[in-house]
Design a protein that fits this description.
The structure holds two protein chains of two kinds.
Chain A (H helix, E strand, L loop, with lengths): L1 H8 L5 H11 L6 H6 L1 H10 L7 H19 L14 H26 L24 H19 L1 H7 L4 H14 L3 E2 H4 L6 H16 L3 E5 L6 E5 L9
Antiparallel strand pairs in A: 1-3, 2-3
Helix pairs in contact in A: 4-5, 9-11
Chain B lengths: L2 H15 L3 E2 H8 L3 H15 L5 E6 L2 E6 L4 H8 L9 H13 L2 E2 H8 L4 H9 L3 E5 L8 E5 L1 H7 L10 H4 L2 H14 L1
Antiparallel strand pairs in B: 1-3, 2-3, 4-6, 5-6
Classes of the chains: A mainly alpha, B alpha+beta.
Chain lengths: 242, 186
């Protein structure tokens, strides 16, 4: 009886833990007969807490089944004409056994949680920016590119020297070109730049040509894109007009 | 590509990921078949088991690289990790049912426990120990629950089948049979 009073003081979340506690305190197995034996104590527990039980419906549902079991145990000949499986004692018995198995498993899990043996995984790396060179870029190409960058840096360092060395006058080129145009009926641009020593001279030659056109001192024509540029002195009849 | 190269590739991908990676994603990333990926994964797992500090955690088609559970004390000391508060008895029961019987519906959990288990399930979802799976298109009604890789991590096993008595507790019929046998002994 002392054990039973301990049960009475405990808080049970649902009917199964209470039933199990009652059966186990009496050192009974889970059978329909043992369930019938604890029916009174179950009802007593529930009736004392009627208002406060959080899962009252579940407690009462089991209570009704226990009452049926008890009636059958007292009056084996009783025929209540119920074929409903839900009300049979076997169903309650099996449910309680199943519940007990998982409650035991929960105990094992608790042991494992407390055992302190757990794993950790690392936080994902969040790549904000990824260096993604075009396909086919090798370490050797990167090396070459870097050397090229270094060279251009040294070019800038020597830029002053170059500026002193080479002064190219656009006016000078304009005059040279003007003179050439006036001498020949037709001038081909590729010949003009043939003797250029560097790209700056080519550019200045082209600027000079544009300047002549702007001054209306020369006519130009270019048959195809990036093709040869022909020019002649303005006022001369064009080849096509002839 | 031989199995060792594939296993090495898997290890590298898992290292940078940090998150669980699906087997499908692994096979696509490496350019090998799913069968080859499976073999390579098993090879990697066997390699790691030879006393390495990392293990592979597995759950239905996903793998995660994690620390060996025996090393937990050192990691916790190193990172000054404080353990989470204990689970309630109700949550623990619910967790055990989800672990052994998952994926399960809420109704199945409640049928076994005999009480409403919404709060317990929510608590477990919040802790990341349990996750929704199954038919999401059916809304919450079709929701089924199973334990997460974090759950495996938190108790230090690498596969759900390593739980004690998994074989018998994961199948309803066996549970009942076992229960009957126990009743016979009393």
């Amino acid at each position: 009886m002392e054990d039973y009073y301990r049960v009475k003081l405990e808080q049970f979340e649902g009917p199964f833990p209470l039933l199990l506690a009652l059966v186990e305190r009496k050192k009974l197995g889970i059978t329909t007969l043992s369930l019938a034996k604890v029916a009174d104590q179950y009802l007593e527990y529930v009736s004392e807490r009627e208002v406060s039980l959080p899962n009252l419906v579940e407690f009462l549902s089991v209570a009704s089944r226990l009452l049926l079991l008890k009636s059958r145990a007292i009056l084996p000949t009783l025929d209540l004409d119920d074929e409903d499986d839900d009300l049979s004692g076997e169903d309650l018995e099996l449910k309680l056994k199943e519940y007990r198995r998982y409650r035991e498993a929960a105990g094992h899990l608790l042991g494992m949680f407390r055992g302190g043996r757990r794993s950790y995984h690392r936080a994902p790396i969040h790549f904000v920016r990824v260096f993604s060179p075009a396909s086919g870029v090798s370490a050797e190409i990167l090396r070459g590119t870097f050397l090229g960058v270094l060279e251009s840096v040294s070019d800038i360092e020597h830029a002053e020297d170059h500026a002193i060395e080479e002064v190219v006058s656009l006016d000078e080129y304009v005059n040279l070109l003007q003179e050439r145009v006036s001498r020949a009926t037709k001038v081909v641009f590729s010949e003009v730049i043939r003797d250029s020593r560097n790209v700056v001279e080519v550019i200045v030659s082209f600027l000079a040509l544009l300047e002549l056109v702007r001054r209306r001192s020369a006519h130009t024509d270019q048959e195809i894109l990036f093709g040869e540029i022909h020019f002649r002195q303005a006022g001369e009849p064009s080849a096509r007009a002839l | 590509m031989d199995i060792r190269e594939a296993a090495s590739a898997i290890e590298s991908i898992l290292f940078v990921s940090g998150d669980p990676v699906s087997m499908r994603h692994l096979s696509q990333s490496i350019g090998i078949t799913e069968n080859e990926t499976e073999e390579a994964k098993e090879y990697l797992k066997a390699q790691l088991q030879k006393g390495r500090g990392l293990v592979l955690l597995e759950k239905r088609g996903s793998v995660l690289l994690a620390t060996r559970s025996e090393n937990a004390p050192f990691i916790e000391a190193s990172l000054r990790i404080e353990r989470e508060g204990p689970l309630s008895r109700a949550a623990l029961e619910t967790l055990s049912i989800v672990a052994y019987r998952g994926p399960v519906s809420r109704a199945e959990v409640e049928s076994i426990r005999g009480v409403n288990s919404t709060l317990s399930l929510r608590n477990l979802l919040l802790r990341g120990l349990v996750e929704r799976s199954g038919d999401v298109s059916n809304g919450n009604k079709g929701a089924r629950f199973s334990v997460s890789l974090q759950f495996l991590e938190s108790i230090g096993i690498s596969d759900i089948s390593e739980l004690p008595d998994f074989e018998s507790l994961s199948q309803p019929e066996k549970v009942e049979k076992q229960a009957d046998q126990e009743a016979g002994l009393v």
